[in-house]
Amino acid sequence: MPALNRRRFLTISAAAGAVGAGAFAGRALQAAPLYRWDGVALGAGASITLAHPDAERIIGRALAEIARLEAVFSLYRKDSALTVLNANGSLANPPFELLECLALCGTIHSASGGLFDPTVQPLWRLYAESFAKGAAPLPEAVAAARALVGWGDVRIGADRIAFARPGMGLTLNGVAQGFIADRVAALLTAEGLTDVLVDTGEMRALGGHPDGGAWPVALDVEGTILPDAVSLREMALASSAPRGTTFDDAGLQGHILNPATGAPSDLPWRLVSVTAPSAALADALSSAFCLMPREAIVATLSAFPSARLVYLG
Amino acid sequence: MHAVRFARSFGLGTLLSALLALVALALPAAAQSEAPLLPDFIALYPAGKLVPGAEAYGPMRDDIPVVPLLKGSETIGYAFMNSDLVGAIGYSSRPIHILAAVSPDAVVLGAAMLQQSEPLLQSGKRATTVKQLVASYAGRDLKPEAVPGGTGKDRPYVSGVSVSVRVIEDSIIRAGLKVAFTLGLGGLEMPARPPGTFATVNPEAEAPATWQALLDAGLLRQLRLTNAQLNQDFAAPGQPPNAAKFPARGAADELFIDLYASDISVPGIAAQLLRGVERTDLFAMVEAGGAAIVVAARGDYSWRGSNYRYDGLFDRIALVQGDKTIRFNSRDQMSIYRLAVPDTPILTEISLLAIPAFAEFDPTQPWRLELLVERRMGAIERTYLTYGVDFALPANFITPAVMTVAQYEQAAERAAVVAMRNSVWQNKSVELAGLAVMLAVLTAAFFFQSYLTRSAGLTFWFRIGYLGTTLAFLGWYSNAQLSIVNLMALASSLQSGFDWETFLMDPMAFILWFSVAAALIFWGRGAYCGWLCPFGAMQELTNRLAKALHIPQWTLPWGLHERLWAVKYIIFLGLFGATLTSLDTAIRYAEVEPFRTAITLKFARAWPYTLYLSVLLFIGLFVERFFCRYLCPLGAALAIPARIRMFDWIKRYRECGSPCQICSNECMVQSIHPTGEINPNECLSCLHCQVQYQSKSVCPVVIKQVKRREKVAQGVHAVEHVIERTHHANHPHAVKVAE
Ligand code: SF4
Ligand code: SF4
């Protein structure tokens, strides 16, 4: 019995979806045909779309980078830096990417009044394991797990990351996909590419569509596709669907947990989409917003003038 | 001379090598390139003292100065000297000699400091402490150290002797890793990349001679960050609002860091950036298959940080290539004072950082040096940013791969096959020489058969001798029995891709087959079947014995005999057809040949096979060469092309067959038709009928001739007498004319 009822909740890139191999090959102005790679990053569907004569080699480098970052962030890999940190309670000489990502987490944590909190991992584990056995967790168990949540108890240093209390854990699922999209985009920029769409579950557009114009992106609101809902140019887009992945088969217990109550979000949001200059920031914000009413979202956004709420409903 | 400051222990040694050269004469110790010291030191230090339970040292390996540690006949570990394998120069500028051993699982079994000249360690409490420290490495697992940069484990502290302690730690671990990787201990293995299958650094490529030109050529990459830029980055969305409240110390337009990076193990680049002695040190530091980068910087921010002083790891830089992140340990660092290019800016932190071979760094692929910038906001709050310098070697510095791994493997396979073939041929030299003599003798016998066959006795004993040699030497000793299986393998290889090598693997069969092919053109199948086939020889010799014992021989009626001939062709065709479908089944059917039982295995086989063989030989006692005549598929195969032979060596008279039947009755395989002509498909060239052909006592034609000659001779004699009487010796030619 699956612990999670994973639904298709992520945004769909309408443009990328329409791109067949060589669909644009005949265009006179097109130096190289549009190349699209489809695969998996951090357990979610991923794609990279670019136009370059040496596309395959470049994609190869991007995939190596994704693999390298999965070895830092993945909770599904036994040897990833994050898994080791969670298992041992500390990690010496942490990877730079982990430090950078945690710095962002700290920022969003305070900006969201503590609602965005990567230390909900013990709670999340409790929910996943309980529902896997077919029942919601007992209130006492939830209370015990909630006692292990506390961003302030994570000591972060370049020489060592450590939890103040045993049993604590981190999940970066609300931000790592965006972070990886940013790193892949940086690598592609260093390769000299200008017009690329990186989708690692969250999207990061470099430039616009090689055919001109922005990258048109569709949104998927619990199965209803809103075509061309967002135009991305030199911008990142992240979406969170609180009930897109649920702990229970009925689809009621969403996967985004409120660290304050220890329970899944009780807000009505089906999809929260945010654009920002970096995918990691957009990802963290969209995750945080799942737990906020509209007024709080608007208030939080005022601290991030470059970020925009593009869908809430 | 003090242009170079060495953080790295053994760098100093090379610098002082001139001094050392003098000292070295008096010491059993010196640099890595010299004869290993291991044998001298193990002679002084019993195995059981190094590792409890060990009983002896084994012989030293050829590839690396390492000796096995033995307990009885079991190898429980491997002993080595740190100073044989890696630099181990201490504070004294002389090596600290440590004998150590690792287990097959790459765990240090024991270590002992055997000789050192450290000024602070000559006696007293410290000396004892350090000795204990060395011994305490027993139990240290080297596997976790096998990551670039190492574990950064805390180095033990002994006051006042930090350099010596560092050298001890570094040299034991690095030497141990070298042993583990070379011997494949604990699952550590050097990546095997066959030469030619991957791109390499072109050692000939030359780099320009100025700083600016190096930058322009992309051989040196720069990361330039002003305080203003940094402050701006720390104010970006996503950074804690607090970060902006703790700006960089210096003025806005001053350098936070100006960092340069390059691949210094590229000879062309090293030639410009380093001085001669530094290059020597660098090449001593970089192990085969490894590499090194140079990181040089100025500005407010130190890329080295300070943590490395405690745990060895530089925690502000990392090299990223593909899916690998490589970090650096101060043990793999050599710091230098100034780069050699004239217009170098004044840089404050310059280090050469070695990358071990097992890191699988590929100098021909792009890499990125990442710099972690930490901003402290008060006592505990920190935030981080990373910057990167991308490096990619220009194309003219890269020698592309010449072949793919698959091609390499194919070539290697081929070379192995050729080597094996050569050794097979060498091992068979006695057999080959014997075969050569036999072939020469047989050729001579055939060429001069008319002389040979003049004497019935000579021919008989020659043949018995030859057949005996064929059976004993070719057959039992050399196993050189041709078989229909050879032809089946050939046919199937023609289908699937012919390869000489397969056939060259059996030199005797190869030569025999070639000789047989040549003989077929001249003489037909007889050269092989009649003389060189060991089983044929066995049948004939046993039958000779039977004849000598007066065992009655059975001559098949011609009509039956002629029809039975066909059987062997049918068997041959059957086997051939089977080959086309499956070689393996066909080979099983080919057991119709008793050769393996009789020759290769010398009767030592399961009873059905020996029974079959015995039956054949038994029948052969009464019907000479029963198997050859009617059953042998190989004989059939050789018989088919018999009619292409160029010469009829077997001579006949017009009278053969009509009326004379002597030869035809005596032919051992009944290959002479009653009508007189010889069936070349069946004749085994035994030469018996050629003896008859010349026999003055058997062949009626010869007998008649001799009689006629005698008569003529008498006539001539009479005439001569007359001439002699009339002409004396005046006309000697007349005699010849008359003759
Ligand atoms: S017929 Fe066969 S067994 Fe007889 S001599 Fe020839 S090859 Fe040998
Ligand atoms: S006797 Fe003459 S015909 Fe018969 S096998 Fe010998 S050589 Fe051939």
Structure, explained:
The complex is a heterodimer of chains A (313) and B (739). Chain A is of the alpha+beta class and 313 residues long. Helices cover 33% and strands 22% of the residues of chain A. In chain A, strands 2-3-7-8-11-13-14 form a seven-stranded antiparallel beta sheet, with helices on one face. In chain A, strands 4-6-5 form a three-stranded antiparallel beta sheet. Chain A has a two-stranded antiparallel sheet with strand order 1-12. In chain A, helix 5 packs antiparallel against helix 6 (139-146) and helix 7 runs antiparallel to helix 8. The longest helix of chain B has 28 residues, at 700-727. In chain B, the strands form four sheets. A five-stranded antiparallel beta sheet of chain B has the order 1-2-3-4-5, sandwiched between helices. In chain B, strands 7-8-9-13-12 form a five-stranded antiparallel beta sheet. A four-stranded antiparallel beta sheet of chain B has the order 11-10-14-15, with no helix packed on it. Chain B has 31 helices and 16 strands. Helix content of chain B is 45%, strand content 13%. The radius of gyration of chain B is 44 Å and the shape is elongated. Chain B is α+β, with helices and mostly antiparallel strands and 739 residues long. Chain B starts with 8 loop residues before the first helix and ends with a helix. The complex binds iron/sulfur cluster (2 copies). Residues 650, 667-669, 671-672, 678, 683-689 of chain B line the site of one iron/sulfur cluster. One iron/sulfur cluster is lined by residues 529, 533, 535-536, 627-628, 632, 634-635 of chain B.
Overall shape of chain A: it is globular
Number of helical regions of chain B? 31
Shape, per Cα inertia axes of chain B: elongated
Which structural class should the secondary elements of chain A be placed in? alpha+beta
Q: Helix amount of chain B, in percent?
A: 40-55%
Question: What's the mean pLDDT score of chain B?
Answer: 84
What is the percent of helical residues of chain A?
25-40%
Spatial order of the strands forming the largest sheet of chain B = 1-2-3-4-5
Task: Give the neighbour order of strands across the main sheet of chain A.
Answer: 2-3-7-8-11-13-14
Distance between the termini of chain B: 112 Å
Assembly type of the shown chains? heterodimer
Total beta strands of chain B: 16
Task: Note the run of SSEs of chain A as H and E.
Answer: EHEEHHEHHHEEHEEEEEEEHHE
Mean pLDDT of chain A: 83
Low-confidence stretches of chain A: 1-30
Major β-sheet profile of chain A? 7 strands, antiparallel
